[in-house]
Amino acid sequence: MSDPTLLVLSSLAEGDKHGYAMMQDIEAFAGVKLGPGTLYGAITRLEEHGWIRPAGARTRRQSYSITPAGRQHLQTELATLHAIVKTGLSRMRHA
Hints:
Blueprint: H1 4-12, E1 17-18, H2 19-30, H3 36-49, E2 52-55, E3 63-66, H4 68-93
Antiparallel strand pairs: 1-3, 2-3
């Protein structure tokens, strides 16, 4: 999985993080290296949707937090992925 939206939301579900911390966390749990352009593009889109927000005062190393709407979106998307994985694994057993 390499969807930046789900990766960023999954990272922030653990707690507030700034961009570099998100990049490190995502690489650790997903094995995906997000470049700064990809990460900050995703952050902008997530803020526009109201799924994340800045945590505290805006600074050079801005931290972000997931909003309740972001948690709901993440939960819905992960449930869909879970159903796809479950179906795929089941079908692989029959192949």
